[in-house]
């Protein structure tokens, strides 16, 4: 019996004797099946290859965690530290003894929280190793491919995990899509960790919003307006996405400007072409 991992999205499945035929995550229109076909691996197989996790101090209280060479979607997870509380925001598939030792040296984990299903990866493995709960919005429950008693399906629009560290449901990319507000981050100016519920684009003074990024399916203008309204009430001046892109300053204003530009583009008033 093995917990197989999809090599395209990196999500781990329930234990099975046979390799799964389909990946529910990849066959849905927000993701994709590799042109080479569906392929699978296991965490144990990955440990026998050249993978390692690179943990970098991004700024006071914030570490990035990323697998090298890149695996599956290639997202970055973040370790947030405040007052003896350590939170892993989003997750990555690869986990080895070196990573466990390093995070243990930082004080271990107290909780894991997820932005959306594309980053569920081996979240249960991480939760079992560090003996912590996993927070997922109940609206995305059907996308959990490996169930666990450690998963807490939270409801409503926000959930404070620790003093000033709060998950907010924005929806959009996924119905339960969430962002993390960290009020004490960036010298008490606030940091917003967004996965790709809000995506930092190539020009890092701007962000965008999509239903599907690889398949370029936009969100409705009204939904983006709703997301911007919620984010407008949060405290942050810096924003990190899941791909090591950062809006370093004035992120609160940049999100509002970006939402306005997005809506105008969809409504046909931003430009003529």
Please describe what this structure looks like.
- This protein has helices spanning 43-47, 97-105, 123-130, 185-188, 221-231, 251-267, and strands spanning 4-6, 40-42, 52-59, 62-68, 77-82, 85-89, 111-113, 134-137, 151-154, 158-162, 165-169, 178-182, 191-193, 199-200, 207-208, 210-212, 217-218, 238-240, 246-247.
- It is of the alpha+beta class.
- It has one domain (4-267): Metallo-beta-lactamase, Chain A.
User: Share of helix among residues?
Assistant: 10-25%
Beta-strand portion reads: 25-35%
In angstroms, what separates the terminal alpha carbons? 56 Å
Major β-sheet strand ordering: 3-4-5-6-7-8-9
Q: Helix count?
A: 6
Order of helices and strands: EEHEEEEHEHEEEEEHEEEEEHEEH
Short description:
The chain is an alpha+beta fold and 273 residues long.
Layout: helices, strands, pairs:
Elements: E1 4-6, E2 40-42, H1 43-47, E3 52-59, E4 62-68, E5 77-82, E6 85-89, H2 97-105, E7 111-113, H3 123-130, E8 134-137, E9 151-154, E10 158-162, E11 165-169, E12 178-182, H4 185-188, E13 191-193, E14 199-200, E15 207-208, E16 210-212, E17 217-218, H5 221-231, E18 238-240, E19 246-247, H6 251-267
Parallel strand pairs: 6-7, 7-8, 8-9, 13-18
Antiparallel strand pairs: 1-2, 3-4, 4-5, 5-6, 10-11, 11-12, 12-13, 14-15, 16-17, 18-19
Helix pairs in contact: 5-6
């Amino acid at each position: 019996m093995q917990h197989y991992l999809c090599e395209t999205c990196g999500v781990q499945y329930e234990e099975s004797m046979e390799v799964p035929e389909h990946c529910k995550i990849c066959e849905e229109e927000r993701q994709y099946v590799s042109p080479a076909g569906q392929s699978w691996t296991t965490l144990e197989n990955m440990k026998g290859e050249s993978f390692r996790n690179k943990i970098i101090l991004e700024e006071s209280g914030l570490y990035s965690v990323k697998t090298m060479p890149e695996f599956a979607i290639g997202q970055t997870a973040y370790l947030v530290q405040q007052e003896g509380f350590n939170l892993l925001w989003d997750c990555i598939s690869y986990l080895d003894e070196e990573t466990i030792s390093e995070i243990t040296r930082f004080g271990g984990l107290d909780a894991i929280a997820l932005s959306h299903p594309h980053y569920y990866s081996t979240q249960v493995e991480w939760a079992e190793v560090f003996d912590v709960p996993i927070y997922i919005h109940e609206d995305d429950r059907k996308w959990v491919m490996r169930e666990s008693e450690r998963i807490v399906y939270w409801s409503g629009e926000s959930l404070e995990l620790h003093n000033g560290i709060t998950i907010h449901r924005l929806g959009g990319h996924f119905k339960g899509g969430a962002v993390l507000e960290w009020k004490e981050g960036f010298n008490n100016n606030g940091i917003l960790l967004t996965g790709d519920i809000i995506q930092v684009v190539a020009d890092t003074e701007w962000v965008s919003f999509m239903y599907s990024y690889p398949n370029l399916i936009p969100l409705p203008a009204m939904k983006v307006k709703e997301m911007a309204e919620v984010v407008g009430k949060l405290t942050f001046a810096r924003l990190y996405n899941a791909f090591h892109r950062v809006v370093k300053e004035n992120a609160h204003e940049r999100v509002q400007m970006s939402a306005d530009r997005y809506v105008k583009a969809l409504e046909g008033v931003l430009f003529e072409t």
